[in-house]
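WARN no homologs supplied; continuing
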Amino acid sequence: MFLNILQIVIILLIIGFGFVVPIGKYLVKIFTDDKDTVLERLTYKLLGVAPDEQMSWQRYSQAIILSNLVLVLVFYTTLRLQSFLPLNPDKGLLSTTITPDLAFNTAISFVTNTDWQNYSGETTFSYFNQMVMVTCLMFTSSATGLAAGVAVIRGLSQNGANNLGNFWVDLTRAIYRLFLPICFVLSLVYVWQGVPQTLSGAAVATTLEGATQTITRGPVASLESIKQIGTNGGGFFGVNSAHPFEDPTPLTNSLEILSMLLIVPALTYTFGRMVRAPRQGWVFFGVFAALFIGFLVIVVPAEQIGNPLLTLVGSDQSLSAFQSGGSFEGKEVRFGIAQTGLFVTATTAATTGSVDAMHDSLTPMGGFAALSEMLLNVVFGGKGVGLITLIMYAAVTVFLVGLMVGRTPEFLSKKIEAKEVKLVSLALLAHPFLILIGVGLALVWPKALDSLGNPDAHGFSEILYAYASVTANNGSAFAGLNGNTPFYNITLGLGILLGRFLAPVLPMLAVAGSLAVKPRVPKTTGTMSTNTLFFGVLLLASILIVGGLTFFPALALGPIAEHFELATGKTF
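OK structure emitted
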């Protein structure tokens, strides 16, 4: 048990003390630098954009939507025309037809940084789509989310000017200066550890029994690096990071966890520096960390204790010198309970969506924690978007406090008025609305329940997990639900699209634009300080209360009910 705790603590300490400040400083330099590199200037020229243009929130939003729309159309086209495109050495092995509804779902999924997969990559995609489209889109979607987050930060730092920066500059710098260098180095490390990186077709091997086995491979390492660094999550193989070609060793598993949490926590430091309120950034980091650790201490003990029904029939699930114990269904022995639990918590916290174990096999409380992180969508969250969501909750918190004391709420010396509250409310309501409407449709739509792998409470959890995952732009799945049907491809695709832009990117860009033009108001004795431990506790309470009131009934029908079923041996 000590070693399990130790490896978790070491990874968390590396993130907290090794990443936050240096990466945060580097992000500040990237997005405040006055000079562009030669490669960046060439890119602006090829795109036909003016890098000196200072965009309002409306122009910034238009640029995001336009770029995403073009990428969706391009990827949809390459999916439908896959059989006519090059880099397809395993053409005869690809068994799944890319139907219009699957292409629609997949194109939207990868462009929006969700990477939900209703297919198995090694039997569906050519190398062209895996490398030229999927891997490239992982860079652009990650950079888009990060750019949106930085734009909101700029808006909050302005004093009477509607200037959120230039989307094309932010996008280009994020790719060239951040994601590409890190992913290049990480790809080499993965190759060293045994992850394939080749354009050769599948290998054919003869087993010890004399049978012939086809072993799929391809440009895996390059995809794997940006998959985690960009909190994308889509796997080259159907079982994602549980596959030994994607995640072969405990070292690569640790690197993947560190990669998922490399940029997002550091953004809190970047935020503090750019708005000239460093303590505010540390308060935000503290709230993120408290939520993350809270869910981590639910997942790991739940998986280590195991299944109580197996204990009743005499199965020994205890941790000892001779066995790792716990619930090992759907998990990889090479990672163990501790790393698996940390991976589960990290991938749903950072809205990555990659998995090194089958979440469908998690204990009910393990599934509860993973689900809750996506439902709240503010436990670190994805690059940029997680910080945006936390700022949204901060606005709600100061508004509620203002109501209680009879003052106009303020945040970072800007008054939060009716317009901002309405926009924040739109983003807050859109997230649960999209999830719960999708779940409701799936429960009543003809034959939609036929896709379930399990009945009763666990089956409900599978549906709830799917719509929570796509709306939160996470992309992981319980894996017990067959989503490759027209109904699920279309409804999940719409959830991905609306979840990306309605909750919270576009509303919060509008909030940032609104606050940017407002002059700063001087602090008085009645001004509530938002950079204190007290405000951090209020913010944490607001997140848990709002999230609890919104989603507890749904959770009670799924993982909570299943937990009591296992504990009592009765079906509710």
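The longest helix spans residues 2-32.
OK
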